[in-house]
Amino acid sequence: MTQDELKQAVARAALAHVVEGRIVGVGTGSTANFFIDALAGIKDRIAGAVASSESTRQRLESHGIRVFDLNEVDDLPVYIDGADEITVEMHMTKGGGGALTREKIVAAVAQKFVCIVDESKLVPVLGRFPLPVEVIPLARAYVARELVRLGGEPRLREGFVTDNGNLILDVHGLSIVDPEALEARITQIAGVVACGLFARRPADICLLGGSAGVRTLSA
Ligand SMILES: O=C[C@H](O)[C@H](O)[C@H](O)COP(=O)(O)O
């Protein structure tokens, strides 16, 4: 199977976690896009969706799925999204598409986070994928210096502006031995909006697509 076929398989499997008659939280990226396309097939059985990015909002709406503002939603049973890396502890690196901040907010509201990935994303330790950090433009240089002090090599994502009007520093070479501590440490730097580590709010389950089919993992 190709990587896209594996992504499609986990996206379809995620439909089983959508709660009928309720709003579903929807992530961003190529795997989430396959999920949106699958969700269109059951759109009459859900109340609508909340989107973690403008691109996701547009894709949902193009399928005729009603998109709610998160501020209108006080109870979200499930959030479904991809990841750039995930461990068996359900810790993730996210933000390859630059949507990490809104993803983190929607994930925080949701009762359950279902991560959908192909098997190439499962890693023993996070860190091969550069860690995205969203920063306020004014703080770019300061935050970059602080990230160097933490042992990383931050690189500005050239020509990219987030949905929130901010910049992304992709941090290479970090040793992520304690993801929760590092997430807290980076988030505390003045000017950081969010860091792409999802360890303090890990996934609840992971649907992992491989050549033998879709496996369900949980911590
Ligand atoms: O900002 C983007 C998100 O965190 C994505 O969920 C992540 O980059 C994975 O994307 P893809 O499914 O395209 O590999």
TrEMBL record:
CDD domains: RPI_A (cd01398). NCBIfam families: PRK00702.1, rpiA. Substrate binds at T28, G29, S30, T31, D81, G82, A83, D84, K94, G95, G96, G97, K121. It comes from Rhodocyclus tenuis (Rhodospirillum tenue). Belongs to the ribose 5-phosphate isomerase family. GO terms for biological process: D-ribose metabolic process; pentose-phosphate shunt, non-oxidative branch. It holds the Pfam family Rib_5-P_isom_A. Keywords: Isomerase. This is Ribose-5-phosphate isomerase A. It comes from the Bacteria. The active site is at E103. GO terms for molecular function: ribose-5-phosphate isomerase activity.
